[in-house]
Amino acid sequence: MMLDRLSFDVAVRGPKPLKAADREVNVILTVSAHPLPRTAEVIVFDRSDRAAFAAVKAHVLSAIDAIADGVEFAVVAGSTTVPDGARLVVADQRTRAAAKAAVGELGPRGGARFADWLGRAAVLLTEHTGPHPRAMLITAGTRQDFAEAAAPYADRFLCNYVGPDSSTEGIEDGVHLRLELPKHARLRFLRQISPRQVDLTDEAGPLGFNTGTWGAEAREYQLSVEIPATPIVSQFLAARATLVRRDDSGQPVRLAHANVIAQMEIPPPVFDAPDQADEHTGPSASTNFVNTGLAEAEAPLEPLAPDTTLRPAWGYWFWLDIGSLVSASIEARPMSLPPYPPVNSQLTVVLYGFPGEFAIDPASATGVLEMTADGSARVLRQPSIVDNPTRLFFPVRTPREPRPLRLRCNIYWQQELIQSRLITASPGELKSTVDFRIADPDDVPLRYTPHQYSASLLLDDDGRGTHALRVFAKQGADVLRAEASIPGQRLTSAIRMARGALSRVAWGNEHPWREEFTYRYAIPPSVEQVSNDLITLAVTGYRLYHVLVRSLGRSVNENSCDMADRVGSALGAPGFVQIALKEGAQHVIPAAMIYDLPLDGNARNLALCQDFLDWATRNEIPRSPCLQRRCRQALRPNPTVVCPGGFWGFRHALGLPASLGTAPMVPPLLPHDGGARLVGGVYEDFASAAAHRDTLRNLLPWKDYRLGEDRESTLAGLKGDPQIVYFYCHGGASGEVPYLHVGRRGGPTITPDNLAEHRLRWSWSRPLVFLNGCRTTGLEPERAIDFVSFFVEDAFACGVIGTEITVFEQMADQFAEEVLRGFLVHGEPIGAAVTRARISLLANGNPLGLAYIPFVSPTVTMAPLRVP
C-alpha cells in the first residue's frame, strides 16, 4: 500500500576549489523534506456508521476546504460522486463550495464497502496524468480493513486512511543517508549541524547513516572526505549522497541523491613527447580521454599519424575509444576525464556524412560503448566486422576526386547529444574538433535524471550554402538515425516565414515591430481571432516541418516520406526533445512553431479541432487530450483541421542548449541552500514594472531579491550565486551588437562586453538567465546568441530563456511568473515549465507563448523550494 510520504531533496553547498596538494573535500549537505505536491485528490466519504456519521462528515468538509486551487478533485460518497458526477473538477472557491453543499445534504447510508469505493476512486483517477494522485478514505472503520481494500491500487495512486487509529500524516521514519566514496577515499566525518548537532560518523548501518524521524523540515550536515592524490583533472566526483528507506517489503528505496563535485585550480596538463613503443601515452595511466583517428582498411589496429594524407577512392576505418591518451589520436584538444567515471553507463556513437565527401554506410554508422570501473570503455555494439573489445571501428571511403573531407561524429547518452565532433581530412592533416559539448563521457552519472529524451536534433552548416539536419531518436526498443541536406536559402526562408507568422499574430504584419504597431492581444480576443491565428501559425509551422524532413532518408536509400513518417512516429508522444546549437550556429530553428500533423495549407476552409474547442468551452485546455496527441484529430488526421497538439511547443518539453565551450557540465539538479536568490534588472518605463516586480517578490520567500532600477545597480547586483538572473527589459541591436536596456528611456545599455568586464562566473549555482525583452527591435535569436554564449560559456549559467520576436508586457509578465512557479515551486524540469507556461497563455486565449525559446537542456531541474 502506498502511504502519503514526504518528498526529499538534497542540495550541496561547496566545496571550494582545491589546490593540487589539497586532500580534503568539505561540503554542507542541506536535506529538505516537504509534502508531495498534489495534482489530483479523491476524498472517499464513509457514510455507513450512523453513530460516528457527524464526526466523519465534519472531517470530510474540512478536507474539502484544505484542497488547494488548481488541484483536480472529487468526493466519492457511497454511490454518489460530487460535485460533478463521474469526473474530477478543478478546485477553486466555486467548486469547493459546490462539493461542500452536496456533502452537507447527505445522510448516513449503507454498509462499509471500502473496496468498491476505492475502485470508484481509481476510475476517476484513470485519466489524470499529473504526479502523486491520492485517494483519502475518511471513516470510522479500522486501518486493517482499509489496508486490504487499498492493496490492489498500490502501484497506481497514494492511498491514505483517516480514522480512529490514524497515525500522524506527513511523518517519515527510518530515513538513512548513504555515502558512496571513490576508491581510496576515506570519510573523515559526517555531522548534523542544524537544527541540532549530532555526530553520525560512527553510526553507519547496512542502509547508511540513520537520520531518524522526519517531518516537513530542513537539516544541514557537514561532510568531510579525505581524497587520495588525484590525476590532473578539472573536476571529479568526490562523493555521492543518497537518501534511502525500506519499503513495505523491506527493500531499499531511493528518495533523493546529490553528487559532490570537486574542482581543482591547476594548470592544464603538459604532455611529454609520445613514447613510440606504445600508442597509449600521456600524463597518467589513470587519466582517460576520448581518442579518435583513422586507419587503413587492411590494418585497423595501426592508427594513421595525424599528418597523413588520405588517398582518393580508398577505404579506411574511422575509430574511437575512451581510455588513456593515444599518441596517434587526431583530437585537436585532448580532453582529460576525471578518474571516477560511471560504471555500466552506455554511450551511443553515431557518424553522419557530408554530400560528396566521406562515404558512410548507414548500416555501420552506429556503435555502443559501456563505461567500466577504471574509466575506460568497452564495446557493446561494434558497427563493423573488426573484432576489438575496446575500440569502435566505422568503415568510411574517400571520394574519387581529392578534396578536403569531413564527417560528423556524435556521442549520445539516452538520446541526448553530449558531444559532437567535426572530423576533417586535408593534405597533411587529420583533425577532430569538438564544436558542441554539454558534457563529457565521464559526466554521464552526474547527469542522472528520470526524464528520457525522445530525440535529439542538430543543424549542421556545411559552409557551402547547405545545412545538414542530424536526427537521433528512440523508436520503440530501437534507435533511429536520420539525416537530411537542406539548401540554405530554403531553410532561411522557412525560418523567416515562421517568425513572420508570429509577428502577424502579435501586431498584424511581418515588418519589424515599431512603436506605432498595436499589440493584438492587449484586450481579450474573440474565439474567431484565436482560431484564425492558430491556423496561421500551423500553416507556416507545417511548411517549416516539411522543409526539415523532406530529405530525410535519402542517405539510406529510403523514401523520404517513409523516413519522415518514422521520425514523426518517434516524436509523436509528448517528450523531451533536444535541438543542439553547436558553436558558430548560423540559424536558430523556431522549434516551438514546428507543426507536424498532416495539413493542407492551401485548403479554403481550415478549421480548429472540435475536441480542443470543447475543452476550451469548459475552461480546461490544460487537460485537453489534444495536448497529449490523443484527440480525434491526432488519431484520425483530417488535413483541413488544425489541432494545437500538432505544435511542438504545446506538446514537447523543448530545449535548445548552446555548447558549453570549456565550461563544466551543468548538473541536472541545480543546487540551492534551502532558498533561492533572484537578481537582475527592470526597464522602469514599462507600465506594469512595479506590479510585476511585486508579483515576483511574492512568488517565494527569496533569500535574496534584487532587481536593479538602472544599469549600474543591475550590473552590481549580478555578483554572488543566484538561482535566477532576470532581465525584464527593453532591447535591440546597434549595428551587429545586441544590447539590453534597463532603467529609464535614454539611459545607457548593457552589451555582452559590459558583462564580460564584470568577470561574472556563477560556478556553484549555475543559474537560469531569463531575457524577457519587451518591445525590442532587431534582436533576432541569431543576434541574441551572443548573450547566450556569454552567459553559458563564460558566466557558467545553465541556460537562457529568450524570444523569437518581441513580446509585450501583458504576456511577458504572465509567462515569466508561470515559468518560475513551475521551475522553482513545483520542481518541474525547465522544458516542462516552459511548455506549461505556453499552455497557460493558450488557456487564456493567447497562442504567443510559442514565441519563447529555452536555450537550455530541457531536463534541467531545481529541487522544489518549500513555500509557506
Short description:
The chain has 16 helices and 43 strands. The protein is of the alpha+beta class and 868 residues long.
Verbal overview:
With 868 residues, the protein is of the alpha+beta class. The protein is built from 16 helices and 43 strands. Strands 36, 37, 38, 39, 40, 41 and 42 form a seven-stranded mixed beta sheet that branches. Strands 3, 4, 5, 6, 7 and 8 form a six-stranded mixed beta sheet that branches. A six-stranded antiparallel beta sheet has the order 23-22-20-25-26-27, with no helix packed on it. Helix 14 (781-794) links the parallel strand 40 (768-773) and strand 41 (799-803). Helix 5 (488-507) runs antiparallel to helix 6 (527-549) and helix 15 crosses helix 16 (830-843).
The helix/strand class is alpha+beta
Largest sheet: 7 strands, mixed
What do the pLDDT scores average to? 85
The geometry reads as: globular
Rg over CA atoms: 29 Å
Termini gap: 29 Å
Number of strands: 43
Percentage of residues in DSSP E strands: 25-35%
Number of helices: 16
